[in-house]
Amino acid sequence: MLAQLGSDTRSPESGQAAIESAITLPLFVFLILGILQLSLMHQARLLTKYAAYKAVRAGALHNASMQKMERAALAVLLPLVSRDMGGGEHIKPTHAASDFQAKWRWAQVLGNRMEEADLPYVQVTVCGPLRGNFPGNPREVNFDAPAYATSEDWEQGQRTKLRLQVTFNYRMPIPFANWIIFNAARNREVPWLMRLGKAQGRKRSSPDARGGDLYLALAEKGVYAHPIRATYTMRMQSNFLLQKPGHELPERNQCIFPFRYD
């Protein structure tokens, strides 16, 4: 009898260990998954920078054609493009040319639109030059015209340089970590345990300046996308066709930067 009672008796340390494990295990799991997710996002950032270079090069050679620039950027980022296969994100590898061609024919890739929301995989924005940099509303601007390529004003001297920003709406594929990183990046509420205390006066959410609530609508469907941006500048090697559809320049700079000159 005494032996049986002794075997059923548990020390206080065992209960304490169980509580500590329950507290630290979610943090440990998030640490491992978070490192993996952030590593993939770093890879996406490097590819986005290269995609910006390829996009601006395509624009410099093809009269700042928006279609050419978007397809060039999407071709670079295609290995990281994913879609929901029911139960999680699936990133189809592109180890061979046949894999690339098969993935390039996806309906979502051909339309550059996610099936869950009206959100592009890749978006190209012209930072400059702007429409107002060419007064008189000309039909075509010679890319090497001295009147535009040289100026004592630095800003005016940039009129023949194409400046682009590529936004890659990266769909995070790592479960649990994608949800935490998405909420943290948008300043949204996360469980108390994951934020180690609740900050006072924090807003419920902070939608992205470009895309707005589309990211939140996508998250409600269980897909967490995060915009990754890169910019690149290159001198034009073909003429601006300012009045041709798909080649127009914007009236104002709509690129998003984390800094301001003023």
**E-strand count:** 7
Q: State the domain count.
A: 1
What distance lies between the first and last C-alpha atoms, to the nearest angstrom? 83 Å
Low-confidence stretches: 196-207
Number of helices: 9
Order of helices and strands: HHHEEHHEEHEHHHEE
Structural class: alpha+beta
* Structural Rg: 25 Å
Shape: elongated
Characterize the biggest β-sheet: 3 strands, antiparallel
Strand-residue fraction? 5-15%
Mean pLDDT: 83
Strand line-up in the sheet with most strands: 3-5-6
Residue share in helices?
A: 40-55%
Describe this structure in words.
- This protein has helices at residues 2-8, 12-61, 66-77, 97-104, 107-111, 146-149, 177-185, 192-195, 214-220, and strands at residues 83-84, 89-90, 122-128, 140-141, 161-171, 225-235, 240-241.
- It is α+β, with helices and mostly antiparallel strands.
- Helix 2 packs across helix 7.
- Residues 196-207 have low confidence and may be disordered.
